[in-house]
UniProtKB/TrEMBL annotation:
It comes from the Bacteria. Keywords: Hydrolase. SUPFAM superfamilies: alpha/beta-Hydrolases (SSF53474). Residues 27-241 form the Dienelactone hydrolase domain. This is Dienelactone hydrolase family protein. Pfam families: DLH. GO terms for molecular function: hydrolase activity.
Amino acid sequence: MSHEQTIITTRDGECPTHVFSTGADLNGPAIIFYMDAGGIRPAVLDMAQRLSKAGYVVLLPDIFYRYGAYGPLDPKKVFEGDVKAILGPLMATTNNTKAAEDTEAILAYLDTRSDVKGNKVGGVGFCMGGGMAIAAAGTWPDRFAAVASFHGGNLATDTPDSPHAYASKLKAELYIAAAENDVSYPLAMSERFENSLDEARIRYRAETYPAAHGWMKPDFPVYNEVAAERGWREMLAFFDRTLRERL
């Protein structure tokens, strides 16, 4: 397994990025990993590595690069304190629009790698990263074949860069994994989001897991191993079908 660290120059600065692959030539399709609000930390690196072991080149950009140096944060300690005070300043430096803009440079970097198969990429996002992955796919529709969102929040709001507003531009297939009783993605919002996909005739599958918001992250207090392993099975099967089998 190969783990590289590189700097990708975006419109707004230098974005530290982790790249995972098996180290072999023509490794496989690329997947961009959009992190949660906890930022880059060991658990997220482990998740990106696990995804790569399934045969993908996985890019994990630090979308908090505009903030500067931070952490790594320990989510359990963060949730014990003032979450807004700790994460608010970091989250204020980015949004769906900026993440989509950053993706332009990420895609350009992928085009320089000889170990990436195909022109189409996948995207996966967790929590806030779910909406970012969808926005990126809507901004660069000819490049994204598939996007998975796990416990993504605020997918259909009245903000200009709400993920549901990108529905008419999407060409990617979506897998939407929601959490039960998620205040960041209530039933009314999920219906609004799915209605936008239906109207745009986007191919997607939406499921609600019997778990709390953040259940996929092994360093979260709400981590649910059973639900997480189910999520991994669904994710890998989804990307294998939409990316690997179409090469």
